[in-house]
Sequence to fold (323 residues):
Amino acid sequence: MRTLYPPIDPHDSGLLDVGDGNQIYYEVCGNPDGKPAVMIHGGPGGGCNANHRRQWNPDLYRIVLFDQRNCGRSRPHASDPETDLTANTTWNLVADMERLREHLGIERWQVFGGSWGSALALAYAQTHPDRTSEIVLRGIFLVRPQELHWFYQEGTRHLFPDLWERLVAPIPEEERDDLIAAFGRRLEGTDDEARLAAARAWSQWEAGTITLLPNPALVEEFGEDKLAVCFARIENHYFRHGGWFEPADQLIRNVDRIRHIPAVIVQGRYDTCTPMATAWDLHKAWPEAEFQVAPDAGHAYSEPGVLDRLIAATDGFAGPAAG
Ligand code: STX
Fold:
């Protein structure tokens, strides 16, 4: 089984001005002369962490990570209720990636994204296919209405009725027909206590359901005030807007734009957050992309069977020198 490469530190990092008052944090690791790859994190609102650097051979890759607007180390931060999220949209994130690519003097890069990152990776690649050398996707999530309905209304709850009770606790019965809207009112309202309670419930629901086996440390982490509010506000903002994608299935309809680009799709069989039906729809529309199912994995990239296949993919794309 392949696993993460050893821990590394960035050799370059900074804040890039992307307009609308936003600065996005980026860092570059690995070989400065290596093959460029960009990591697109999940959520949206999850930010990058030090383990994300370790999914590529650092001798062969120039690894670029960035925190999407208003999360992680980017500024201003969504944990501050004063931070306006209006200019935080999928298509502005695609433009931010182009700015970052140009800023770093990169011609083409490998685009790598899991979960929400798979949607943003597809949105980017379909907008800028000439800038995309390969595509590596995990835990496919395309922000379609049926996917949101599954996770926040009628699907996952049947597998996690105990955690579901905690998710819906801050929302009165009569508002539960549309939980995304009900959470939105609290996350964007003026009551700080209600915001925090809603944010914790929202963020810990996800942390509790994304791994095949329980990960109490992850649930704890997503209960922390700043992370919980940031993550919940950004996700809820994106989901209330359907990710700014056109109906129906924009990212699947536009596969023709990227069909020629070498790609790998990795999906956990027991992903209860973004179930395999979405990955399957993508696979049917894009049979040219290598499709890999990890039979014993949930949603998180850290699932051993997922990680093994992701690193096999980045090794495979690294060229003949890959070990
Ligand atoms: N959100 C799916 C997603 O992108 C509905 C995602 N799921 N978990 C994460 O991201 C974290 C690992 C950032 C918690």
In short: The chain has a mean pLDDT of 97. DSSP finds eleven helices and eight strands in the chain. The beta strands are 12-19, 22-30, 35-40, 61-66, 109-114, 132-138, 263-268, 290-294. The two ends are 14 Å apart (CA to CA).
